[in-house]
Q: What sequence folds into this?
């Protein structure tokens, strides 16, 4: 049984799954990029593509490739490949009650608090995640993930709910930042 199969078996057999339990299990599994080649191919610095332009929505569509590894009634497992210097929009996952992201490579990660009265976004945390770092996802997590490095980044995402949800990873609220205020943008896929 390969590591991905072990992960799926672990989730399927966990009656009270939580981000911290997933985190412990992922540390023990010790995934590396080579474990993902069936889904995303060989991701090394040699096949990185250069993109010197600032990030925008069009770039997000072309430079972030999402692969759904496993879909189950309560959760999804995704792999995302980020070309260099690409970033997600600020977003939250409407249907995610528990989840985790593990990064393979260096990633930049920020979380935000939305004040719905005036749509101001307060940045709560802004960190550089080291290779194999784990980030727990909770229902109120509003975040932005990106690749500031000069080689591709790979991220593993597990998004779940305690009830069955269709296409859980596609249910997101996305925003752009204008003059420190969050402006909703059309509902597209996020990660
Ligand atoms: Fe996300």
A:
């Amino acid at each position: 049984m390969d590591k991905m199969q072990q992960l799926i078996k672990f989730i399927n057999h966990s009656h009270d799954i939580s981000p911290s339990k997933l985190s412990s299990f992922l540390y023990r599994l010790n995934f590396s990029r080579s474990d993902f080649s069936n889904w995303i191919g060989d991701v090394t610095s040699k096949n990185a593509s250069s993109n010197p332009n600032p990030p925008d929505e069009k770039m997000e569509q072309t430079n972030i490739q999402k692969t759904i590894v496993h879909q189950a009634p309560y959760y999804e497992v995704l792999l995302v490949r980020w070309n260099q210097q690409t970033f997600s929009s600020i977003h939250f996952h409407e249907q995610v009650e528990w989840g985790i992201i593990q990064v393979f490579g260096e990633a930049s990660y920020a979380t935000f608090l939305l004040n719905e009265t005036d749509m101001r976004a307060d940045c709560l945390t802004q960190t550089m995640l080291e290779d194999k770092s784990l980030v727990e996802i909770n229902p109120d997590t509003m975040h932005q993930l990106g690749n500031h490095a000069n080689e591709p980044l790979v991220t593993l995402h597990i998004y779940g709910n305690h009830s069955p949800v269709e296409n859980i990873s596609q249910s997101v609220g996305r925003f752009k930042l204008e003059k420190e205020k969050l402006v909703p943008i059309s509902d597209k896929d996020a990660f």
In short: The chain has one domain: 16-41+55-184. Residues 16-41+55-184 form a domain with the Jelly Rolls fold (CATH 2.60.120.10). The first strand starts at residue 64 and ends at 72.
